[in-house]
Structure formats: structure tokens, C-alpha cells
Amino acid sequence: MTPGPTTAEHTTTPVIFPLRRPDLDLDGLLAESEQAGLRFVRRLVDEWASGANRFDRPGEKLFGAWVDRRVVGVCGLNVDPYTAEEHVGRVRHLYVLSAFRRRGVGGRLIAEVIAAARGRFVALRLRTGNPEAARVYEAIGFRPSGPAADYTHIMELASGPQSAADRG
Fold this sequence. Notes:
CATH superfamily: Gcn5-related N-acetyltransferase (GNAT)
Structural class: alpha+beta
Strand order of the largest sheet: 1-2-3-4-5-7-6
Strand content: 15-25%
Number of strands: 7
CATH architecture: 3-Layer(aba) Sandwich
CATH class: Alpha Beta
Order of helices and strands: EHHHEEEHEHEEH
Low-confidence stretches: 1-10, 162-168
Number of domains: 1
Shape: globular
């Protein structure tokens, strides 16, 4: 297991760190998500293992939420693979263990993704078919995208990259 935060005290407040080895760190999330019939944590682990998505392109990050040296949530930021626009980011694979939901873990992960996206991306997109998740994203500031085929929600970021003209 990748080392998490090093603290002697036990805490229930999540600490957010970049994940270095999701193939090792996400066993608990993977098992629970598959038991619930969800496939996106499996896709995250499989794409990492194959090298298809290592969250290593410019601006990309993968975060884990750690509680007591255990990963209890995950969320990633990719360049949006569904558009040719290089300054559009995509929120990927948000999952929080059921025992840690409604405790701010998902919100902390999304906040970290948004902070990482600022200055690199002009917008963040995501896709969810879960009405409860949609409400969470909308409370954070994402807005429904309407009939867009490849995303359900979007957030415009105030501080995207500067163009050559903007830099003077």
C-alpha cells in the first residue's frame, strides 16, 4: 500500500493526497463499487494497469482521500478525452466508500480537483447518471449541461490559461 499521511493520531477528517499507485491503494473502493454494480473504479484500476490513463498529462491529477492510513475516496482530473479542446478538464472516477459518505469526503476531493484545474483549464466537465451525485455537483457550482452527449455537468473556471494575445 502506498503510504498515506503520516500522523500518530487517528482521525475521521479526510486528508487529500495524490495517489501514486491506485492499483494497490483502491482494493476497498474497488470491492465495494463492484458489489454495488458500478464499473468506473474497475475502469480506473484497469486503465492505470494498462497505461491507458495514468493521470500524467499536463494538468492531470489523481487524488485519494485518506482516513486512518486508508483510502476512503478517489477522484481524478483528466484533459477531457471527448473534446479536441485541450483546455477543458474532466472530473473522473469520484467514488467514496459508503461508510464515509455525507461527511464531506467527496466535497474535499472535488475541491482539490477544482483547485488543481485552475490556471490550466477553462472549464471542467463530468458525466453522472446518479441524481444524488448530480445534486452534490450542482451544490458545488457545476451546472447541468442540457442535451450534451458526452457530459451532464459543466463548471466554467474564472482563471483558465492565458492565450498568447493575453500575455502581450
